[in-house]
Amino acid sequence: MNEDKTLAELLEKKEKLVAMLAPSFPLSFSYPAIITMLRRLGFTYVVEVAVGAKKTNEELHALLKKDPTARFITSPCPTVVRMIKKTMPQYAKYFTYDVDSPMVATAKIVREKYPGYRPVFIGPCAMKKLEGSEDVPELDILVLTYMELQRIFDATHIPEEANPDEQFDLSEPGETLMYPLDGGLSFSSGLTKQLSSSEEVKIVSCKENIEAIKEFDANPKIRLLDILNCPGGCISGPGIKSTLSVEERKKKILEYYKARTNNL
């Protein structure tokens, strides 16, 4: 996969592009410099995937409300989805099929708001490439990791300079900025507070995944399994180049969240 080469070709042709930044971006780029850099690179619009995450939460709430007895395994993580489908297909029935991932939800918003523009997702996860090409090919999402984007910045000599007045074209400076953390979906959607006392939300990632899926299937008290693949959540995705520990990465995301919400 040479998505960075594809993006370079699209930029050279001056194609109409919208950058969709995943909420883990502060681990790789500074704010608001990243917006300035993407505009200089050739993107017309720069939006936060936190916008789509809010839509994801709304769709999940509607799904839970529609059938109070139904139980679900969240499916924004393409690695978990593919692991279950390939090695544990008996549990695929629990997927939230009617709920778009934040990437897909954002791409749909972009397609509607900016007709004729191609959505370019920039995030920490290489598996998002398969989600885009296999699950929603009709949206024609180009997916790059942060490291791939950095290579383009390096090749085009785009400096890390910020216009302090720079803003996202579509922004959601709320709790969905914590989506890349373990339990970010459950927390930002308010599910941990809204379920009844007889219901549970279980939050897991990495080594606990297989055991947690089996436990969820066997324990009807668990209404929702909020599951991600990487340690600590998407903050440890393979598309991130960082020497920070998991705890330091969590702290950085929380600092960004607090800085954005305090500036409202």
Structural notes for this entry:
It is a single chain. The chain is of the alpha/beta class and 264 residues long. It has one domain. It has eleven helices and seven strands. Strands 2-1-4-5 form a four-stranded parallel β-sheet, sandwiched between helices. Strands 3-7-6 form a three-stranded parallel β-sheet, covered by helices on one side. Helix 10 links the parallel strand 6 (200-205) and strand 7. Helix 1 crosses helix 7 and helix 3 packs across helix 5. The longest helix has 17 residues, at 50-66. The protein is globular.
Q: Regions with pLDDT < 50 over 5+ consecutive residues?
A: none
**Discrete helix count:** 11
Assembly form of the protein: single chain
- Main sheet characteristics: 4 strands, parallel
Strand order of the largest sheet: 2-1-4-5
What topology does this entry show?
Layout lengths: L2 H10 L4 E5 L11 H9 L3 E4 L1 H17 L5 E2 L4 H10 L14 H12 L4 E6 L4 H8 L6 E4 H11 L27 H6 L1 H4 L5 E6 L3 H10 L3 E7 L17 H17 L2
Parallel strand pairs: 1-2, 1-4, 3-7, 4-5, 6-7
